[in-house]
Amino acid sequence: EPEVTQTPSHQVTQMGQEVILRCVPISNHLYFYWYRQILGQKVEFLVSFYNNEISEKSEIFDDQFSVERPDGSNFTLKIRSTKLEDSAMYFCASSESVSLIYGYTFGSGTRLTVV
Amino acid sequence: KQEVTQIPAALSVPEGENLVLNCSFTDSAIYNLQWFRQDPGKGLTSLLLIQSSQREQTSGRLNASLDKSSGRSTLYIAASQPGDSATYLCAVRPGWAGANSKLTFGKGITLSVRP
Questions:
Q1: A23-57: per-residue pLDDT in tens?
Q2: DSSP 3-state of A15
Q3: Which of A21, A56, A59, A64 is the most exposed, having the fewest neighbouring CB atoms within 10 Å of its CB?
Q4: Contact at 8 Å (CB) between A4 and A60?
Q5: Is B46 an 8 Å CB contact of chain A?
Q6: With an 8 Å Cβ cutoff, is B45 touching chain A?
Q7: Beta strands A19-24 and A75-79, pairing class
Q8: What is the 3-state secondary structure (H, E, C) of chain B?
Q9: Which member of A33, A43, A89 has the closest CB to residue B105?
Protein backbone atom coordinates (compact mmCIF):
# COMPACT_ATOMS: atom_id res chain seq x y z
CA GLU A 1 0.00 0.00 0.00
CA PRO A 2 1.36 3.47 -0.86
CA GLU A 3 2.90 5.38 2.02
CA VAL A 4 3.82 8.91 2.98
CA THR A 5 7.48 8.85 4.00
CA GLN A 6 9.00 11.29 6.48
CA THR A 7 12.65 11.85 7.36
CA PRO A 8 14.28 12.01 9.79
CA SER A 9 12.22 10.10 12.35
CA HIS A 10 13.81 12.08 15.17
CA GLN A 11 15.76 15.33 15.14
CA VAL A 12 17.38 17.15 18.00
CA THR A 13 18.36 20.75 17.44
CA GLN A 14 19.61 23.71 19.43
CA MET A 15 17.30 26.65 20.03
CA GLY A 16 17.71 29.24 17.29
CA GLN A 17 18.87 26.76 14.67
CA GLU A 18 17.07 26.11 11.38
CA VAL A 19 15.55 22.71 10.71
CA ILE A 20 14.09 21.17 7.58
CA LEU A 21 11.64 18.31 7.89
CA ARG A 22 11.21 16.22 4.78
CA CYS A 23 8.27 14.32 3.37
CA VAL A 24 7.64 12.27 0.26
CA PRO A 25 3.86 12.20 -0.35
CA ILE A 26 2.08 9.49 -2.28
CA SER A 27 2.96 9.96 -5.92
CA ASN A 28 -0.48 10.65 -7.41
CA HIS A 29 -1.67 12.86 -4.55
CA LEU A 30 -2.20 16.52 -5.19
CA TYR A 31 -2.85 18.01 -1.74
CA PHE A 32 -0.24 18.17 0.98
CA TYR A 33 -0.41 19.11 4.63
CA TRP A 34 1.65 19.55 7.76
CA TYR A 35 0.21 18.91 11.20
CA ARG A 36 1.91 18.83 14.56
CA GLN A 37 1.25 17.23 17.92
CA ILE A 38 2.79 18.62 21.07
CA LEU A 39 3.20 15.88 23.67
CA GLY A 40 -0.11 15.19 25.37
CA GLN A 41 -2.08 17.57 23.18
CA LYS A 42 -4.28 17.36 20.11
CA VAL A 43 -3.01 16.99 16.59
CA GLU A 44 -3.27 20.47 15.11
CA PHE A 45 -3.23 21.80 11.58
CA LEU A 46 -0.31 23.91 10.37
CA VAL A 47 -0.60 24.38 6.62
CA SER A 48 -2.10 23.00 3.43
CA PHE A 49 -0.44 23.17 0.01
CA TYR A 50 -1.86 22.71 -3.45
CA ASN A 51 -0.70 23.59 -6.93
CA ASN A 52 2.64 24.83 -5.61
CA GLU A 53 1.21 27.32 -3.19
CA ILE A 54 -0.14 27.54 0.32
CA SER A 55 -3.92 27.06 0.42
CA GLU A 56 -4.43 27.76 4.09
CA LYS A 57 -2.32 28.21 7.18
CA SER A 58 -3.11 28.32 10.85
CA GLU A 59 -2.14 31.01 13.31
CA ILE A 60 0.69 28.74 14.44
CA PHE A 61 2.28 28.94 10.99
CA ASP A 62 4.00 32.30 11.39
CA ASP A 63 6.95 33.80 9.53
CA GLN A 64 9.30 31.29 11.13
CA PHE A 65 7.70 28.51 9.11
CA SER A 66 7.82 27.87 5.38
CA VAL A 67 6.93 25.01 3.06
CA GLU A 68 8.26 24.03 -0.31
CA ARG A 69 7.90 21.36 -2.94
CA PRO A 70 11.30 21.73 -4.52
CA ASP A 71 11.40 18.91 -7.02
CA GLY A 72 7.95 17.47 -7.62
CA SER A 73 8.35 14.66 -5.13
CA ASN A 74 9.59 16.07 -1.83
CA PHE A 75 7.54 18.36 0.41
CA THR A 76 9.46 20.17 3.12
CA LEU A 77 8.70 22.16 6.25
CA LYS A 78 11.35 24.62 7.34
CA ILE A 79 11.52 26.26 10.74
CA ARG A 80 13.97 29.15 10.53
CA SER A 81 14.84 29.78 14.14
CA THR A 82 13.57 27.04 16.41
CA LYS A 83 12.12 27.73 19.83
CA LEU A 84 11.68 25.36 22.74
CA GLU A 85 7.93 25.36 22.14
CA ASP A 86 8.45 24.00 18.62
CA SER A 87 9.28 20.63 20.18
CA ALA A 88 6.57 18.32 18.87
CA MET A 89 5.82 15.47 16.52
CA TYR A 90 5.36 16.82 13.01
CA PHE A 91 3.18 14.87 10.60
CA CYS A 92 3.04 15.22 6.85
CA ALA A 93 -0.13 14.10 5.08
CA SER A 94 -1.42 13.96 1.55
CA SER A 95 -4.76 13.40 -0.12
CA GLU A 96 -5.67 12.38 -3.59
CA SER A 97 -8.27 14.85 -4.68
CA VAL A 98 -10.63 17.53 -3.55
CA SER A 99 -13.43 14.99 -3.39
CA LEU A 100 -11.54 13.38 -0.52
CA ILE A 101 -13.25 10.06 -0.98
CA TYR A 102 -10.21 8.30 0.37
CA GLY A 103 -9.34 10.73 3.15
CA TYR A 104 -5.88 11.59 4.30
CA THR A 105 -2.78 9.42 4.45
CA PHE A 106 -0.36 10.44 7.18
CA GLY A 107 3.34 9.78 7.47
CA SER A 108 4.91 8.25 10.56
CA GLY A 109 6.09 11.64 11.78
CA THR A 110 9.29 13.43 12.74
CA ARG A 111 9.85 13.98 16.43
CA LEU A 112 11.54 17.37 16.80
CA THR A 113 13.26 18.12 20.08
CA VAL A 114 14.57 21.65 20.61
CA VAL A 115 17.10 21.98 23.42
CA LYS B 1 -15.30 26.94 15.42
CA GLN B 2 -15.43 23.15 15.28
CA GLU B 3 -14.59 21.33 18.52
CA VAL B 4 -14.09 17.57 18.70
CA THR B 5 -14.35 15.79 22.03
CA GLN B 6 -13.47 12.24 22.95
CA ILE B 7 -14.43 10.97 26.38
CA PRO B 8 -13.07 9.22 28.35
CA ALA B 9 -9.42 10.03 27.80
CA ALA B 10 -8.40 6.50 28.75
CA LEU B 11 -10.04 3.11 28.93
CA SER B 12 -8.84 -0.25 30.23
CA VAL B 13 -10.72 -3.43 29.38
CA PRO B 14 -10.09 -7.19 29.61
CA GLU B 15 -9.29 -9.09 26.44
CA GLY B 16 -12.33 -10.29 24.51
CA GLU B 17 -14.62 -7.45 25.49
CA ASN B 18 -16.63 -5.59 22.88
CA LEU B 19 -16.21 -1.86 23.30
CA VAL B 20 -17.41 1.46 22.00
CA LEU B 21 -15.31 4.60 21.67
CA ASN B 22 -17.20 7.86 21.42
CA CYS B 23 -16.52 11.04 19.48
CA SER B 24 -18.63 14.19 19.47
CA PHE B 25 -18.33 17.34 17.38
CA THR B 26 -20.02 20.70 17.74
CA ASP B 27 -20.63 21.67 14.11
CA SER B 28 -22.69 19.08 12.23
CA ALA B 29 -21.79 20.57 8.84
CA ILE B 30 -19.03 18.06 8.15
CA TYR B 31 -17.86 16.51 4.90
CA ASN B 32 -16.48 13.34 6.43
CA LEU B 33 -15.12 11.86 9.63
CA GLN B 34 -12.02 9.72 9.92
CA TRP B 35 -10.90 7.41 12.73
CA PHE B 36 -7.17 6.94 13.26
CA ARG B 37 -5.02 4.72 15.42
CA GLN B 38 -1.82 6.02 16.98
CA ASP B 39 0.70 3.78 18.71
CA PRO B 40 2.97 5.44 21.29
CA GLY B 41 5.43 7.79 19.60
CA LYS B 42 4.25 6.74 16.16
CA GLY B 43 2.25 8.12 13.25
CA LEU B 44 -1.44 8.09 12.46
CA THR B 45 -2.91 5.04 10.78
CA SER B 46 -6.27 5.54 9.12
CA LEU B 47 -8.84 3.00 10.26
CA LEU B 48 -12.14 4.09 8.76
CA LEU B 49 -13.50 7.04 6.81
CA ILE B 50 -17.20 7.86 6.84
CA GLN B 51 -18.63 10.32 4.37
CA SER B 52 -21.36 12.64 5.65
CA SER B 53 -23.96 10.79 3.58
CA GLN B 54 -23.07 7.43 5.18
CA ARG B 55 -24.27 5.97 8.45
CA GLU B 56 -21.53 3.43 9.03
CA GLN B 57 -18.40 1.76 7.75
CA THR B 58 -16.92 -1.60 8.64
CA SER B 59 -13.44 -3.06 8.43
CA GLY B 60 -12.81 -6.40 10.05
CA ARG B 61 -13.56 -6.15 13.78
CA LEU B 62 -14.07 -2.39 13.53
CA ASN B 63 -17.33 -0.62 12.84
CA ALA B 64 -17.73 3.14 12.82
CA SER B 65 -21.08 4.89 12.85
CA LEU B 66 -21.98 8.48 12.20
CA ASP B 67 -24.98 10.49 13.36
CA LYS B 68 -24.28 13.84 11.78
CA SER B 69 -27.37 15.60 13.08
CA SER B 70 -26.50 14.87 16.68
CA GLY B 71 -22.79 15.43 16.16
CA ARG B 72 -21.69 11.95 17.19
CA SER B 73 -19.63 9.07 15.93
CA THR B 74 -18.77 5.78 17.58
CA LEU B 75 -16.03 3.28 16.87
CA TYR B 76 -17.04 -0.24 17.83
CA ILE B 77 -14.28 -2.79 18.40
CA ALA B 78 -15.42 -6.39 18.58
CA ALA B 79 -13.62 -9.03 20.61
CA SER B 80 -10.81 -6.74 21.72
CA GLN B 81 -7.22 -8.03 21.75
CA PRO B 82 -4.06 -6.78 23.50
CA GLY B 83 -2.81 -5.69 20.07
CA ASP B 84 -5.67 -3.19 19.92
CA SER B 85 -3.99 -1.20 22.69
CA ALA B 86 -3.31 2.25 21.24
CA THR B 87 -4.74 5.75 21.12
CA TYR B 88 -7.77 6.18 18.88
CA LEU B 89 -8.41 9.60 17.40
CA CYS B 90 -11.33 10.91 15.46
CA ALA B 91 -11.07 13.84 13.09
CA VAL B 92 -13.67 15.76 11.12
CA ARG B 93 -13.42 17.68 7.87
CA PRO B 94 -15.67 20.71 7.38
CA GLY B 95 -18.60 20.67 4.97
CA TRP B 96 -16.83 22.79 2.41
CA ALA B 97 -14.34 20.25 1.09
CA GLY B 98 -12.01 22.47 -0.82
CA ALA B 99 -8.28 22.06 -0.99
CA ASN B 100 -7.90 24.14 2.12
CA SER B 101 -10.34 22.28 4.34
CA LYS B 102 -8.44 20.89 7.27
CA LEU B 103 -9.04 18.14 9.77
CA THR B 104 -10.00 18.99 13.33
CA PHE B 105 -8.91 16.29 15.75
CA GLY B 106 -10.11 15.10 19.10
CA LYS B 107 -7.54 14.45 21.79
CA GLY B 108 -7.96 10.72 21.49
CA ILE B 109 -8.89 7.80 23.73
CA THR B 110 -6.01 5.70 25.01
CA LEU B 111 -7.16 2.09 25.07
CA SER B 112 -5.45 -0.63 27.05
CA VAL B 113 -6.60 -4.21 26.53
CA ARG B 114 -5.47 -6.48 29.37
CA PRO B 115 -4.58 -10.11 28.55
A1: 999 988 888 999 999 998 999 999 999 888 998 89
A2: coil
A3: A59
A4: no
A5: yes
A6: yes
A7: antiparallel
A8: CCCEECCCCEEEEECCCCEEEEEEECCCCEEEEEEEEECCCCCEEEEEEEECCCCEEEECCEEEEEECCCCEEEEEECCCCHHHCEEEEEEEEECCCCCCCCCEECCCEEEEEEC
A9: A43
